[in-house]
Amino acid sequence: MDLDARKSILQRTAFFADADGAALTAAAETAGELPLKNDESLFLQGEEASYSYLLAWGRVRLDQTTPDGRNVVIRFLGPGDLIGTVAVLRKKPYPATPVAVEDGMALFWSAAVKAKLLADHPVLAGNAIDLIGGRLEELQERLRELATQRVERRIAATLLRMVRQAGRRVEDGVEIPFVLSRNEIAEMNATTLHTVSRTLAAWEQEGILSGKRASHLVITKPHRLVEIAEHE
Predict the structure, then answer these.
(1) What domains sit in the chain, N to C, each tagged with a CATH number?
(2) 3, 39, 128, 168: most buried by Cβ count inside 10 Å?
(3) Phi, psi of 116 (to 5 degrees)
(4) Residue 63: CB atoms within 10 Å
(5) Alpha carbons 193 and 197: distance in angstroms, whole number
(6) Within a 13 Å sphere around the CA of 109, how many CA atoms are in the beta-carbon half?
(7) pLDDT tens series, the chain, 232 aa
(8) CA distance 25 to 34
(9) What string of H, E and C letters represents the secondary structure of the chain?
(10) pTM of the complete model
């Protein structure tokens, strides 16, 4: 990928919003490229945080292993999302493992280079704080849901988040354009595969969603999903 192609990718991301030409050029010149294959990991939970990544295209799932060995799906990340930046800035091990759910490409910077970019271009530091703050707000919302809401509401809220983050309009509704397994939904909502399967089957029967489009979920009645997510 040439310099102009990298700059074109960077300027379409929230991390480089309002960045001037000098910042874009510096970031593009110092970025490495890492092609990703489906099911490949960018790094592993617990490894030293040596590199910060920005997903150019594709999508990854952020997995975290608990002390008792259970897997928890933290969230899904898409084009323009930062990966590993907090760990790099805090000089802590990576807290989770990003696993590609489709082929993609990540740009990356070493810890030293990322620190210099942020120091030389304060707008990038501000954007990083905003993006990380938004991620934290989402996690706080999920914790509140886990603590206070019944499981059907939590599952509905999770699917709506997927729609907001990645949904695209199709003829029969809004599609989540990557494979989202029922087990992954269960791990995101601290519930069982049986409960998720039963819930989604009921929603399919009601016509709220469809799972028949190339293994991608399609929300056919988004308003009903909103009603379920907001129902006390």
Answers:
(1) 3-145 (2.60.120.10), 150-230 (1.10.10.10)
(2) 128
(3) -70, -40
(4) 18
(5) 6
(6) 20
(7) 889 999 999 998 989 999 999 999 999 999 999 999 999 999 999 999 999 999 999 999 999 998 888 888 888 999 999 999 889 988 999 999 999 999 999 999 999 999 999 999 999 999 988 888 887 888 888 788 777 778 999 999 999 988 888 888 988 889 988 888 899 999 888 899 999 999 999 999 999 998 665 568 899 999 999 999 887 5
(8) 19
(9) CCHHHHHHHHCCCHHHCCCCHHHHHHHHHHCEEEEECCCCECCCCCCCCCEEEEEEECCEEEEEECCCCCEEEEEEECCCCEECHHHHHHCCCCCCEEEECCCEEEEEEEHHHHHHHHHHCHHHHHHHHHHHHHHHHHHHHHHHHHHHCCHHHHHHHHHHHHHHHHCEEECCEEECCCCCCHHHHHHHCCCCHHHHHHHHHHHHHHCCEEEEECCEEEECCHHHHHHHHHCC
(10) 0.78
- The angle, 0 to 180 degrees and rounded to 10, between the axes of the packed helices 151-166 and 222-230 is 130
Task: Report which residue type is found at 188.
Answer: M
- Tokens 């409960």 identify what position? 195
- The whole-angstrom distance between residue 112's C-alpha and the CA centroid of its chain comes to 25
